[in-house]
Specification:
Mean pLDDT of chain B: 87
CATH superfamily of the largest domain in chain A: P-loop containing nucleotide triphosphate hydrolases
CATH architecture of the largest domain in chain A: 3-Layer(aba) Sandwich
Radius of gyration of chain B: 21 Å
CATH class of the largest domain in chain A: Alpha Beta
Number of domains of chain B: 1
CATH topology of the largest domain in chain A: Rossmann fold
Strand order of the largest sheet of chain A: 6-7-8-3-9-10
Low-confidence stretches of chain B: none
Largest sheet of chain B: none
Largest interface: A-B, 29 and 25 residues
CATH class of chain B: Mainly Alpha
Number of domains of chain A: 2
Number of helices of chain B: 11
Number of helices of chain A: 14
Order of helices and strands of chain A: EEEHEEHEHHHHEHEHEEHHHEEEEHEEHH
Strand content of chain A: 15-25%
Distance between the termini of chain B: 44 Å
Helix content of chain A: 25-40%
Radius of gyration of chain A: 24 Å
Number of strands of chain A: 16
Low-confidence stretches of chain A: 347-362
Structural class of chain B: mainly alpha
Oligomer: heterodimer
Shape of chain B: elongated
Chain lengths: ~350, ~220
């Protein structure tokens, strides 16, 4: 657990980076500091491993003031990932990952076998071990950066905009990977980003910061999106936050109709395995079917499925893609009631806008 | 066309084959003297340059000082050193070191200073101490620059070590100075040619070092 206790940073020239901040970062979960550039989020992150010394207040790591710990020793116990990966160009990937174990005095063999484990854990091929950083793509370099941070199995990870420099597709992959890793490892993660989408995706707890490290709101992603503390936070969250909030709600609770019977004049056709093949309607057929998995997907996916269907019904399937039933648009909207009034209003409006105008404009 | 006859006169003389005035012996003297000067300069300038480059202090001073040092006339320094210390190895070593050290100092200082700041930051952030960052990150980063500095210094020292003969020491300068003194132009010409060949050979040796002795990650990524 990290606790910022009135922590502030004033530069020697008198400018303020962080005014004075109280914040608790719970153990075993991901806390995301998000805010516009210059809000002091990186400064706060760097206070934890003493890359920045607070000029007022304290930062406590499991109850100990980090100022009392020797910096190099402290840092070896904390995973650190930065935007540019910061890999050693003259060392092969394997030795880059093993850097902290080497510093901790592990013997070469143990450090390298640990590094091989991590290579696999972050989803890189074993032959990557012998490459030099310049031979890797940006996304691969970031994976190596994450592996290096995890090498000595630290309980705490500091991640400073680690995925900001890669393209959106690769970024999504890296985010997915981090979620998977975190589900497995349960580290205490403090993650800094300026991208609210990323914050919502990765955070268990999101801290919205304003200038000078003033806290706008601390909340879990769903609460943040459905109930922003004030206008300024709402503005930072951007448009469609209600709709985006649906992406955080499970689609399991939607009432299903049997798939066999026609809905609004359209019948779902299936193959012999029960997988959907299309919609058959009065005088026309639609070959594309957008589906959702109740146990896995979110209300957003279910709504999407309903909006895209000519029958205005979402198609629920199991993990093998076999049809479980249909969810009428009204049933999907009913399920939103559980998602809070603000979300319902936003979604109802957006849904009507998209779907109300006569379905798929084919 | 009497260059060729000069050369054949020079190279076929019995003195060139055996004894203290033989080519092998003179080249040996020349290399030993140059090596000593270069070694001393490395010991003096490289650690200091690495340190100054790492701390980022006095970088402007380094550049200014080395600029001034490069303007020092070598022959004048030799004369001064002889006046102060008398005839001897040090009379030649001082100016040769003074020639090589500034080049090496700048190479080491700038090489380290050019380390990617993100890389240094990451190295600190994962728990390297300052000496470890210098040794494990900045020095490897500075290697190409250091090697380039060493090459320049070596070629300059080898070319300039010829002045040792002016104060009675050996080396290839012997041929040049003795040849001039006795109006034995084949000998002067042959000696000068040998100095040039030695300097070019040094240049080639460093080109090979640059190609094969640098870690792959540094060679490729830094051009």
């Amino acid at each position: 657990m990290i606790r910022f206790d009135g922590a502030g940073k004033r530069h020697p020239d008198g400018t303020i980076a962080v005014e004075e901040l109280d914040l608790t970062v719970p153990a075993g979960r991901t806390t995301v500091l998000v805010g516009p550039s210059g809000c002091g989020k990186t400064t706060l992150l760097r206070m934890v491993n003493r890359m920045v010394e607070p000029t007022s207040g304290r930062v406590l790591l499991d109850g100990t003031d980090v100022a009392q710990l020797e910096p190099a020793k402290l840092r070896r116990g904390i995973g650190y990932v930065i935007q540019q990966a910061g890999l050693f160009p003259h060392r092969r990937v394997l030795d880059n990952i093993a850097t902290v174990p080497y510093l901790l005095g592990w013997d070469r063999k143990r450090a390298r076998s640990r590094a091989m484990e991590l290579l696999e854990l972050v989803g890189l091929a074993p032959e990557t071990a012998k490459r030099y950083p310049f031979q890797l793509s940006g996304g691969q370099q970031q994976r190596v950066g994450v592996a290096r941070a995890l090498a000595a199995d630290p309980p705490l990870l500091l991640m400073d905009e680690p995925f900001s420099a890669v393209d959106p597709v690769v970024r999504a992959g890296l985010q997915e990977e981090l979620l998977r890793l975190q589900a497995e490892l349960n580290k205490t993660v403090l993650f800094v980003t300026h991208d609210i989408e990323e914050a919502v995706r990765l955070g268990d707890q999101i801290v919205v910061l304003r200038e000078y490290g003033r806290i706008g709101q601390v909340a879990d992603p769903a609460t943040l999106l459905s109930a922003p503390a004030d206008e300024q936070v709402a503005q930072f969250l951007g448009r469609d936050r209600g709709l985006r909030g649906l992406g955080l709600r499970p689609a399991a609770g939607i009432a299903l109709l049997p798939a066999g019977q026609p809905h609004r004049g359209w019948t779902l056709t299936v193959d012999q395995d029960g997988r959907p093949t299309g919609w058959s309607g009065p005088g026309e057929t639609v070959r594309q079917v957008t589906v959702y998995q109740p146990g896995l997907d979110t209300l957003r996916t279910a709504l999407d499925s309903a909006v895209l269907s000519p029958a205005r019904a979402a198609v629920a399937v199991d993990e093998d893609g076999r049809v479980l039933g249909l969810a009428a648009r009204e049933a999907v909207l009913d399920a939103l009631d559980a998602a809070g009034p603000q979300a319902v209003a936003a979604v109802a409006a957006a849904g009507d806008e998209i779907a109300g105008g006569g379905g798929r404009g084919r | 066309m009497n260059w060729f006859s000069w050369l054949s006169t020079f190279f076929s003389a019995p003195d060139r084959q055996h004894g203290p005035d033989s080519i092998v012996h003179r080249v040996g003297e020349h290399l030993l003297l140059s090596g000593e000067a270069l070694g001393l300069a490395v010991l003096l300038a490289v650690p200091l340059g690495l340190l100054l480059g790492y701390t980022g202090r006095a970088a402007g001073l380094v550049t200014a000082l080395t600029g001034a040092a490069r303007a020092l006339p070598t022959l004048g320094l030799v004369t001064l050193a002889v006046l102060v210390a008398g005839v001897g190895d040090s009379a030649v070593l001082v100016p040769l070191v003074a020639l090589a050290a500034p080049v090496l100092l700048v190479a080491a200082c700038e090489g380290v200073r050019s380390t990617d700041p993100d890389l240094r930051d990451a190295a600190r952030g994962i728990g390297l101490t300052h000496p470890q960052v210098l040794r494990q990150v900045c020095v490897p980063w500075a290697l190409p620059a250091l090697l380039a500095g060493l090459r320049t210094a070596a070629v300059q020292v080898i070319a300039t070590a010829t002045v040792a003969a002016y104060v009675g020491l050996g080396g290839l300068g012997r041929y040049v100075v003795d040849g001039l003194a006795t109006r034995d132009f084949p000998q002067t010409f042959g000696g000068a040619l040998l100095v040039v060949l030695l300097a070019v050979a040094t240049q080639l040796l460093f080109a090979l070092l640059n190609r094969f002795a640098l870690p792959a990650g540094l060679r490729r990524s830094r051009g």
